[in-house]
Amino acid sequence: MAGNRSTLVLSVVVAALAVLPLTGVPDHHLRLVAEILILGVAVMSLDLLIGYGGLVSLGHAAMFGVGAYAAALFATHVSPDLLLAIPAGIVAATLVGAVMGALVMRSANLFLLILTLLLSQMVWEVIFRWRDVTGGADGFRGIPQLTLPGGMAIDSGVDLYYVAGVLAVGAYLVAASFVNAPIGKALVGTREQPIRMTALGYSIPRIRLSVFMVSSAIAGAAGALYPFVNLYVGPQVAHWTMSATLVIMLVLGGVCTLFGGFIGAAIYLVFQTHVSSYTDRWQLVVGLAFVATVLFVPRGLGRELHQLLRPLGLGEPRVTAETDKKGTVR
Amino acid sequence: MPLSDFTRRRFLAASAATAGLTVGGLPFAAPALGQGKGELRIGLLTSLSGPFASLGESMRAGLQLYLAQAKDGIAGRPVRLTVEDDQAKPEEGVRKVRKLIEQDKVDIVCGVIHSGVALAIRDVVAASNTLTFIAGGSANNLARKAASRYVFRPTKTNWMLGSTAGTWAAEKISRKNVITIAADYAAGREYVDDFVASFKAAGGQIGRQLWTPLGTTDFAPLLTDIAAAKPDFVYTFFAGSDAVRFLQQYQDYRLAGRIPLVGTGAAFDQEDVLPAVGAGIKGAINTFHQSPSVPVAANKLFVDAYRQARGRLPGEFSTSGYVAGQVIAAAAEKVQGDLTDKDKVRDAVLGLDLETPYGPMTFDPKNNQAVLNIYVNEVRVGADGKLVNEVVHTFNGVRDPGATA
């Protein structure tokens, strides 16, 4: 029942977004929305780790960045075909995610945070130093436009917007089915009751490795599309500050909601792009918004939206973060 | 901001005049506020947050000073200046330049400090044929493979500073035992590589080459290496706060005065670096296209006006903002303010022979790059006890080799 309603709401949102370009929104705004959708997908993949798995990672930008560079390099040197370049990014990010997951799957809490931070900084260092391949600190330019299999170029903001939209819907469906699948339930179980889950015969490291790989694949898909928005990619996309930005977006949007990632990404990017047109102190505004969110809307705007939609039959998400008594998730 | 008052007043006056004409029974004779005339929209893309924030503020102040002096606008058109912050991030620069072109519909884009931003926006402005004046970002590539028909650069290239420093140092200081230390990003690599090339060509020998990431706070390990190696001199490039910290620590480690410093002018910028470092670094040599002591009338006028406006000597970026305004205005005057025919504007820019605060400036038609005098500055203690860059030698009319290099 509630499931049907939320499918309905989701369909309405998607339909509204689908006709947005027809309303005469300028091209560069559509590019911004495309960027929001792409970063939203990355935040959503991080939500699988932080929200559902209780695994607070500060290294998620590594997978996003590897996906971005892999797709950009693939498009430049092999083929700019969308159906090849994006999978190239997904594969590369999944491999990195598998290595990172294997190294951190036995740790939790602070150790996990530090390990993911260090591992992702190693990835950043490789991108930053390997200037012959990645362009080093200057970033990578001269990326061709993505093409559809027929050879049609994806060049305007509208095209990018639709590609990002398809990516977002696809990634949402993958993430939602993961969460609802037995392994998703087991993941929440390992967050809530690790000892009981072990006693029941679940292998916690194996579950964590799986969620790391799924999350990395989704982040890689988002990263893979990212360079084509501006035809440029720089090493900052893999830097730990990017990971921290993703965490901030997640908190703003609301953990354990999946779609909250899009809300958080939208707030952050709109602030960054538009507030900075009016004041040099835009970072202060973002900071205050973040503080206000934590103080007044501690569950994130996405969860509050859920609350508002309750009369429509949309209850709380079935798995809530607050139930975690150890406070590893907030 | 006096400038916004000024445009608002002019706008009100123009509206009143238009209304008057309409009421006067001439409804179709109202002046067309269309493409050719009317407001001249300039978009300034610069870094107002992030590591280059103070440089960006200087650039904005320089351009605003020029526009405030040009009371009647540029070529008879009132100017509307839109300033956008690229946060010294290439992605953000691209986002903002798209906004300037598509939403604000600017006639001209200018500014840019970070070379990475300059290279990243290059494809966007080239694709939309936007008249662009890169006033800061000095990556060599923009005068070479990445040169573009309507992208002009009224400032130096990194090569112009690096190669002149190599020539000068080999001749006047020493030909052996040199250590280079620089920030590890595009600009640092280019300055040092160009320095090394011309230094070697003049018979010099290079010792160790040290690199540190942008934003380094502690130079101790590298400074102890330098102290142990006792080089004849150190060639350096840092910008902004990195330069301040490096020069402070260079004095803390008692290297100042013992091992001569040679560098690019940015590391000894008059406005953004020198006021923050001690007198210990006096005697340092740098090559630059700017100095408060450049002996031309335009510079004296600018330095005085800038001092009055902001109470300090101008450095590279305030000068660059001012010069960008001057070049835009001179080109616009030549086409009577009509920027619709971009090839005409291009011809006008390439035909300029201006006296700017940098000194004489012409443009190289093969890559739209300014040809400039490069000065060898020595950091001295001025009459007021403050450090000042004094010109001790001038390389006249230095021209980037362009795409063949």
Gyration radius of chain B, rounded: 22 Å
Major protein interface: A-B, 25 and 29 residues
CATH C-level category of chain A: Mainly Alpha
**Overall mean pLDDT score of chain B?**
87
Contiguous low-pLDDT stretches of chain B (5 residues minimum) are 1-6, 14-35
**What distance separates the N and C termini of chain B?**
45 Å
General shape of chain B: globular
The total strand number of chain B stands at 14
Residue-averaged pLDDT of chain A, rounded? 85
Helical content class of chain B: 25-40%
Uncertain segments of chain A are: 315-330
Word description of this protein:
The complex is a heterodimer of chains A (330) and B (405). Chain A is mainly alpha-helical. Chain A has a single domain (2-15, 31-312), classed as ABC transporter involved in vitamin B12 uptake, BtuC (Orthogonal Bundle). The two termini of chain A are 29 Å apart. In chain A, helix 2 runs antiparallel to helix 10 (204-225), helix 3 crosses helix 10 (204-225) and helix 4 (82-104) runs antiparallel to helix 10. Chain A has 15 helices and no strands. The longest helix of chain A is centred in the N-terminal third of the chain and has 26 residues, at 27-52. By secondary structure, chain B is an alpha/beta fold. Chain B contains eleven helices and 14 strands. Chain B has helices at 2-23, 53-69, 90-102, 115-127, 158-172, 186-201, 220-229, 240-252, 297-310, 316-334, 342-350; strands at residues 40-46, 79-85, 108-111, 131-134, 151-152, 178-183, 206-212, 233-237, 261-264, 285-288, 353-356, 359-364, 369-381, 387-398. In chain B, helix 2 packs parallel to helix 10 (316-334), helix 3 (90-102) runs parallel beside helix 4 (115-127) and helix 5 (158-172) runs parallel beside helix 6. Chain B starts with a helix and ends in a 7-residue tail after the last strand. Chain A binds chain B through residues 26-28, 31-32, 35, 128, 136-139, 141, 230-232, 234, 236, 272-273, 276-277, 280-283, and chain B through 48-49, 53, 57, 84-85, 87, 89-92, 94-96, 98-99, 102-103, 115-116, 119-120, 123, 139, 184-186, 213-214.
